[in-house]
Write a structure and sequence with these properties.
This protein folds into two domains: 225 residues, Adenine-n6-DNA-methyltransferase TaqI, Chain A, domain 2; 199 residues, Adenine-n6-DNA-methyltransferase TaqI, Chain A, domain 2 (Alpha-Beta Complex). The chain has 13 helices and 24 strands. A hairpin with a 7-residue loop joins strand 8 and strand 9. Helix 1 crosses helix 3 and helix 6 packs antiparallel against helix 13. The N and C termini lie close together (11 Å).
Length: 487
Amino acid sequence: MTPQQLKNSILQLAIQGKLVEQRPEEGTGEELYQQIQAEKQRLIKAGKLKKEKPLPEIKEDEIPFEIPEGWKWVRFGDLISLLSGQDLPPSEYNDLEDGVPYITGASNIDNGELSINRWTNKPKNIAVKDDLLLTCKGTVGKTTILKEPEVHIARQLMAIRTINIDTSYAKWFIESQIVNLKSKAKSMIPGIDRNNVLLLLFPLPSFAEQNRIVARIEELLPLVDAYEQAWTQLEALNKRFPEDLQKAILQQAIQGKLVEQRAEEGTAEELYKQIQAEKQKLIKDGQIKKEKNLPPITEEETPFEIPEGWKWVNLGDVLSVRGGKRIPAGRKLSDLDTGHKYIRVTDMKNGSVSLDNIKYVPDDIFKKIKAYTISKEDVYITVAGTIGRVGLIPDELHNANLTENANKLLVYTNSKEYVYYLLCSPLVQNQINDATTKVGQPKLAIMRLENFMLPLSPLKEQNRIVARIEELLPLSEILKKQTEKQP
């Protein structure tokens, strides 16, 4: 149950006579009704109230629920005087606190309190202290009991002046009827019709019981507020939970806690040596350039313990980072298929690359940037503007040209899927955030990226970790979709 539903339930119980006990000594709704009619006649005779057309009698099939013995069903219009608002032209109001406050609508009412930012010296439709203001157009259903001596109200408001009934009780009654009143709106723009307010069926208890009902509501509403705070926190937690679960899964994975370790699968040190041997061979063959040695990682630098058999490494020790290339200034990518696909950051989505709007490099430009491609065996990471988005390359984009706003990571003897999940983990994403320049356009330099600390596990364990992650992550996606569907 939402906080609003809880509040609605309390108000419904109130107007059904179920919130407080009835006391015969307090009189009846019929007796109060007769007093109200006598008072109305007195006000009409004194010229303080206009005589209005009689409202239709209440039919049996109109009555929505039973009320206690001693209460009486009446038309709301028989208990009140209703004033509709009127807009003023700009020439007739000011912001100089000169004249009578001019209340224009819902923007002047916040949590039942009135704020004033306009005044007029030519008030026409005047509400006075203790009138109940109701927003009836635009944002409808806001209410407040007027504390000012008098105000001019605009057309988005109605002023309800009660006659011998508790104005606060009338306020809570109106709030209980907002959904009903909205449903009767005749136009596409939300609004409350004057006649629909007058024709409302009002359950009338004695005046003393009205006072006790109001007091009980005002005892309960702070509890509703407390419930709303707890409910809001729970809703926020529920919305964050799928993402937090995904982060927790990845964090457990890179700490070696998602699958068991198996001695027969070798060690990360052995894998590390294989990677170095592979890199040396590629350097010797001229396929990659020799890279600068990175400083060793000290035990004090490591953020958490990893299993025996794993190894802390710098990213640049086990991967190679290569940049993309922009097309020359003044030139544009093509929608025509030149055979030279170009991957932009906008195409990088959901850990992959979308094929929906792929652009192509013109033939003459391709000759200049043909070396800046990315393979389906590589992993990408965005390094300018949008930082830290990572993903894998689909087969259809093997050897496509890569934007200058992303880098490719050459994986060597590692699982590319393991590298992808490693880069998605809180460990690496936090390092990305710390290493990103914050002045001007955000950027992540290759040198900083190469210095990231990574926990290296044996290759076969990497594969088992990936399989386990891919079993668990769909659960977080299911939770996310369920959360998104909730009202």
